[in-house]
Design brief:
The protein is an alpha/beta fold. It has 6 helices and 7 strands; from the N terminus they run E-E-H-H-E-H-E-H-E-E-H-E-H. The longest helix is centred in the middle third of the chain and has 18 residues. The radius of gyration is 15 Å and the shape is globular.
């Protein structure tokens, strides 16, 4: 198991994990920080939730576009998956199971959130992919094992995002729907590479269902 991201800090906001009714894992994008994605906590403004954001080594989870061959983005992807698995285990040990834990990511973090959920399929509190898609080239097999068992899944992205092809967002939604995710996908006309108010409302709705 690769150790690239091992030992990196996890930042927290909201209520302490031991007092929370639900947890949200927030995964930052390329070149960003855990602290930067945690600023969404004040915008989401949902009580009783612990927000936890792991930090990538060098501020990047893997080096190249998420559309590149998987082996070219190793050991970053595998190490990121291991870091998320470890964090989810810690959350579960604190008394919050996966079905009350929401995975949220933006950009590179959104790709990781979706890919992690697909590779570790179970009932989550929710999966939120903001400007991202499943990882790998177009011909990547999507024969993931397991079921998302009704997990609410939200994918939001610009229809002209320079990093995330709209076709990949659509395909990711189809794959996660086949895995029994309760999927909502929205492509916003002409939006930049950012998070909008409609997406924040969708996040609040998912958390309301968990809490």
């Amino acid at each position: 198991m690769t150790t690239l991201h091992e030992g990196q800090p996890v930042y927290a906001a909201g209520v302490p994990l031991g007092e929370a009714k639900a947890a949200m894992v927030m995964i930052h994008g390329r070149g960003a920080t855990a602290e930067s994605i945690l600023t969404l906590e004040s915008v989401i403004d949902r009580p009783d939730v612990a927000y936890l954001a792991p930090q990538a080594a060098g501020n990047t989870w893997y080096p190249y576009s998420f559309l590149m061959p998987l082996d070219q983005n190793e050991p970053g992807i595998s190490s990121a998956m291991a870091a998320l698995e470890h964090l989810l285990a810690s959350i579960a040990e604190a008394g919050i199971p996966a079905d009350r834990t929401v995975l949220l990511g933006f950009s590179q973090g959104a790709c990781l959130a979706g890919e992690f959920a697909a590779r570790h399929a179970r009932r989550y509190g929710g999966v939120v992919m903001l400007s991202g898609g499943l990882i790998g080239p177009d011909d990547t097999p999507r024969d993931y094992a397991g079921s998302l068992d009704g997990t609410p899944v939200f994918l939001g992205c610009s229809d002209i995002d320079p990093h995330i092809p709209a076709a990949r967002v659509r395909h990711s939604a189809e794959v996660l729907r086949r895995m029994q995710g309760k999927v909502t996908m929205k492509l916003y006309p002409g939006m930049g590479h950012l998070v909008n108010d409609d997406e924040i409302a969708a996040i609040r709705d998912i958390l309301a269902g968990v809490v």
